[in-house]
Amino acid sequence: MFCCGGSVQPPDVEKLSLKVRLPTAEEDEAWREFSLSDLPIDELRKYCKPAPFGDLKEMKTLLDSEVRIAYEVESNSFIIGESSTSRTREIIPEVLVIRGRIEDTLTPGRDIVLNRYKLNVYSEGGFFKPHVDSPSGDDMIGTLVLCLPSPHKGGELCVNHDGLQHVFDFSQHSGDRSRIQWAAFYSDCLHEVKPVTEGHRITITYKITVPEKERHKSRRWGMGLVRYPVDEHFETSAESPSLTANMLAKVNSELETIRQWQGKGSPSRVGFLLMHKYVSKGLQPHLLKGEDKGLFEFLVEKQWKCKLMSVLSRFQTSVVYLEEDLDLDETHEVYELIMNTPATGALFSEIEVPRKYMPRTFRQWRVGIPFIDIYRRAGNGQLVRNNEGEGQWIANEVEGVGVDKIYLDSAVIVELSDEP
């Protein structure tokens, strides 16, 4: 599963409030408090600014009304919590049993931390085209969206992964001022906010991170869950079709067959490209998502020696001359990533990668790992080169010749040899 969500109805929702302030305000200055069950949008908009988006291709934060129309409040300028005479005590989603649901569904066996990020307002005409969330750190694994009570129509959240789509339609219960709706998903899943056709869609987003060390159980199952019992609705996406018992059996069978090969040229290791996307430093077993975690744990259970690796895959097309006919030749090569210290300059074998995709240490790529596409085919990683080639008539069809596409990707490598 790649997403989950639902709604909760706290018994004392009238005691919950939203506090906001201008971004320029001092720490204890100019807070304005609104009841969560009756948010005055005209007043709230005074504290908002136009919401940008992160362009992962250009590595920039941009404002573009063709891509997104929304307003936002930064995390240090709002608090959602329980109102009191002196202060507002922040109520994070774990108090509403949401965190436990996310841990059970998206990160089974692992604790999460929810980091308050943005308050967003999508008014009539507001939308956000399909995108993935920019990773804010190596340990970020997903995004949580809380939809606050505010009547609206449209604005569906559509989350996509592995050929599946799950739609969260917050508008259906947006007029119920006793209900808080929510959705959580892996941050690399393509998702969009459909245009709002009426009213105002008000949400709070949280970054979901997975700490390497487990928190103390008393924090996870603290008094908050007892103090705030809730009526709830819960739903999840369908299971990914890529991780089935039959597929895992094929993976194991293929590995056994390759290991039994004898003779010169037999591979000492093979790889599987992962379904989800990861930053290089975030490619760690405890940060694997969904079916990738399932595949890795299956391989470990079967006692295969595994490691995770960032790779570069390259797809090319060229013309092959067969006597009097022409044919299109397609090749896919996977390159291993090797970290180098800066010396005389950047070292690349055969391939030049745009500098914005290079870290502070230089990278060198080399071919040498055969990949098996039972689990996932290459071609949907982060595109870093996109030469579309030119159309040419081949066998009564126009084919793209000279295509050269390069993708940054992540993989699990299985060692087939007992040698170190």
Got a strand count? 28
Which secondary-structure class do the elements indicate?
Answer: mainly beta
Shape: globular
Low-confidence stretches: 216-229, 341-365
Number of helices: 6
Share of residues in helices: 10-25%
Please outline the major beta sheet. 9 strands, antiparallel
Distance between the termini: 36 Å
β-strand percent reads 35-45%
What is the gyration radius calculated from CA atoms?
25 Å
Q: Output mean pLDDT.
A: 79
Structural commentary:
The protein contains six helices and 28 strands. It has helices spanning 41-45, 98-105, 217-220, 223-227, 245-259, 290-301, and strands at 3-9, 16-20, 32-35, 49-50, 53-55, 60-62, 68-69, 71-74, 78-83, 88-90, 113-123, 127-131, 140-147, 152-154, 157-161, 164-168, 180-186, 190-193, 196-209, 231-236, 269-273, 305-322, 325-340, 362-367, 382-387, 390-394, 397-401, 404-415. The longest helix has 15 residues, at 245-259. Residues 216-229 and 341-365 have low confidence and may be disordered. Strands 1, 4, 8, 11, 13, 14, 17, 19 and 20 form a nine-stranded antiparallel β-sheet that branches. Strands 21, 22, 23, 24, 25 and 28 form a six-stranded antiparallel β-sheet that branches. It is globular, with a radius of gyration of 25 Å. The chain has 420 residues and is mainly beta.
